[in-house]
Specification:
Its EC number is 1.2.4.4. InterPro entries: Alpha-ketoacid_DH_E1_comp (IPR050771), DH_E1 (IPR001017), THDP-binding (IPR029061). The chain is about 45% helix and about 10% strand. It is of the alpha/beta class and about 375 residues long. The strands form two sheets. It has a five-stranded parallel beta sheet, sandwiched between helices.
Amino acid sequence: MSYTAETLQLLSPEGRLVQNEATERYRGVVESIGEERLRDFHRTMSVVRRFDIEAGNLQRQGQLALWIPSLGQEAAQVGSGYAARPQDHLFPAYREHAVGYIRGLDPVKIIAMLRGLSHGGWVPEETGNFHLYTLVIGSQTLHATGYAMGLALDGESGTGDLERDAAVMVYFGDGATSQGDVNEAFVFAQSYRTPQVFFLQNNHWAISVPVSVQSRTPLFHRPAGFGIPSIQIDGNDVLASYAVTLENLDAARSGGGPRFIEALTYRMGAHTTSDDPTKYRLDADVEYWRQRDPISRFETYLRSLGEGDAFFDEVHQQAEDLAADARRRTLALEPPPADSMFAHVYSEPHPVMDAQRAWLANYEASFEGES
């Protein structure tokens, strides 16, 4: 399932602005994007892709148990991530590496989590309200909806002040739309008119099941049955991702209720490093999407605006530096102390946790002196 007649595209695969009746409403947003923000789009897509590739290499070399690549999905993530305001809360699935990077997440924390060295990953308050990765498919949509309900009930949205009002955005994939949790989230979101955006990255594969088997109709048609406005965009078009997400987040935070964005993209790599996509997909399909690569498309656009080699060389070096730093720090990672498993079970000290910690210490001490 590829583009439809309703797919919004602001930047063509050839790197040219699309001008038609559908794109007219977003012209002002695109024209208002400053040069530095345009550079940010390209820089972040490129740097995170290089980190992603390096992390996959580290997994193959035995440095972590699993890696979840985001190769090919950078534009959907970067555009939407930059569209969010600082006060917004973002709930990822498990491959939103670029969104986390935008919000200030140290990418090595993702490696540490997938290496089994942390109990959850990070503290959202310290990572720009970027919440934890969720490996249970679709459950984050309920977490996000509950959080959005809380924002509304606490009066933190819908006041009319876009600089203060908060919204929630939740990321999920096409496979998650087959889960009951996602549909239940739609019900509660619409019932409570939550200030949130459902951001679907349709990368065409739920592991080995194509989206054409999961849904006989475009997925962005589903929310209409719940009364949720929806739109389908070219997810490899960073300008469309940014402009549409900005519009929908501000509509949601202003009291307009939940919104739904389907970003059509493609998972160029494996579902995870435990997967072999050559077993279930055609080379011709991969090549079709390779020609629609989000980074090369945007580079062409930037060069048409006058950006020169110096900038792209700088980005390349920054990407290499980040990859090298991630490798160095990954190799230096140490296992956490065993009693760290008790640290964050409860928000306050708890006698049961204290007792279990003491038991573990005594148990380990009983082995001292034995050969």
